[in-house]
Predict the structure.
Amino acid sequence: MIKIARLISGTRISQDIKNEITEEVKEMKRTKGIVPGLSVILVGDNPASKVYVRSKQKGCEEVGFKSETIRMDKSAPTEDVLKELDRLNNREDIHGILVQLPLPEQIDKAKVLEAIYPEKDVDGFHPVNIGKLVTQQKCLVPATPLGIIEMLKRENIVIKGKNVTVVGHSEIVGKPVSLLLLNEWATVTICHIETRDLKIHTIDADILIVATGVSYLIKGDMVKEGAVVIDVGINRITKDKANQELLEWRKEDFENKGATLIGDVDFLRVEPKASYISPVPGGVGPMTIAMLLSNTLKAAKNIVGMK
Ligand code: NAD
């Protein structure tokens, strides 16, 4: 009998979260007359960034937030972005601020991220928020890692005491998710590009989290029977780069869009071994937006002194 893993639908869970946020926003508006506001700074015209910013705005509209995008020229100097941030930091109607990454080369990214008030830093990239995450204080946590933990919790997957392997050690995903897992009492192994033998670290994982941007990195023989697998990677594969199996599996995508999105996990081989698995698309991706909205609501509540 072929065992099939339970799919962790980020689409469904994120919709639940957005519904909960919508209710809270209505209540906030009714009782306090306050509407959470998110401002996104977009510097330049990176096509992927534009898509991400649009979906963040759409998310805000869905839950009833005020939202705005501040577009700046790709040649804008750091000082211009800092000036804009200063203005946003001081605006009462804006509770969340984020600067869409990546930034053009001439901009001092660290300076920019540090200029956002930590209370409004809904991406959770400010060193103050990262420091608070390490020391387990209340803070704003990066959305993708938060989404991963939320998915596990809402599926009633126990984290405490589990062996968790995180593949990828970026500031956006790998490192913060490892800290969150540690704070939940998991035993965490972190792997990266210099890890010599990936398989010896993945094969014992009760929960395997992969965020590398390398398609087919995790093969069937690298995963333990019954493991929970969270695939964070997003890889766009065009028709000319796809293998025969992918061409058949994602036939519709290739016909309609000429490309498809896959994760870092060889889904067709890993899924029969896993107990739970998050798909790509429809897994961690939608959770990221939901948690950004959740962070904005949290920031607004903190700023106006609500619990
Ligand atoms: P990154 O490029 O900053 O980091 C990649 C990490 O993978 C690094 O730690 C690197 O050492 C590691 N790595 C690369 N090749 C490896 C290999 N062969 N073996 C082991 N480790 C290896 O990437 P990131 O920003 O963390 O994003 C990772 C992936 O997750 C990307 O595909 C990105 O698009 C996706 N992502 C998805 C979401 C979402 O909402 N679903 C959010 C953020 C990132």
